[in-house]
Fold:
Amino acid sequence: MRHIQLELENGRSQHFRSFVDQYYCYKHGYINRFGKAKWTDLFWKEIVSKEAKKTNDRKMVIKEHIIPLRVITDKLEQLVKKKTISLAAIQAVLDKYTLFATITRLEDQLLRDAKLNSKMPDEFYDENSPMHDDPFARYKKVGIEYETL
Structure:
């Protein structure tokens, strides 16, 4: 997490995808026998759409950030504005907002069509909405049903 802290302190975020994804893999044990992040182990684990669960064809599914990386990056950058760029604060953001799911390519297209592939719906930010700060707000907006495994 120190590398994320250094990037934030220097106004950079271009490497966050790698840093965030690797953090998640290491934290949750998705690593190969050489101790490297093993991305393929994320498929059909933890959160899976009901449609993706019906297939075992890797070509029909994708792994994706439930909360888009752009939103996670924004949350991390807010730490800079609040002057709270501690390792504990960074870890809290990553642990709360970094979640992966396996969804079908058709479901991914639903998110794209709704222009929610890299952002959360407005309700996610609305404190009066039942979807406020709900990681699954995008899925609920487009009708993606999911299960936690």
User: Anything to note?
Assistant: The CA atoms of residues 111 and 117 lie 5 Å apart. The chain has one domain: 2-148. The longest helix spans residues 16-28. The radius of gyration is 16 Å.
